[in-house]
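Design job #97: recover the sequence.
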């Protein structure tokens, strides 16, 4: 019984400590994103800010329909970073309308 308890303490406490860390949430609507409008610039701005955070971050695209022309999201990030898409993100069906014409809709590097 004592062995099981010690085993649990060594594995459960670090897990709880990791998940108890504060996570900064970046909701794109707080940065000016509007449903139906192009969120590319807002997403890029929020991504850069989240990459500089020293604690875990989560970027949230809330429920709704969002248009994204093209996004090139680059790090490196200083701490864990999560992108949570709760809504529907749509692109123009014509790939020739991508601003950079590189054939990539969303690129995440580093």
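Job complete. Output follows.
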């Amino acid at each position: 019984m004592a062995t099981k308890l010690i085993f649990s303490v060594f594995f459960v406490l670090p897990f709880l400590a990791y998940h108890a860390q504060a996570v900064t949430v970046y909701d794109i609507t707080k940065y000016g994103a509007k449903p139906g409008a192009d969120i590319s610039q807002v997403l890029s701005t929020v991504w850069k800010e989240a990459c500089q955070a020293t604690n875990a971050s989560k970027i949230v695209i809330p429920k709704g329909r969002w248009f994204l022309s093209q996004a090139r999201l680059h790090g490196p990030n200083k701490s864990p970073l999560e992108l949570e898409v709760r809504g529907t993100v749509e692109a123009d069906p014509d790939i020739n309308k991508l601003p950079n014409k590189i054939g990539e809709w969303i690129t995440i590097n580093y």
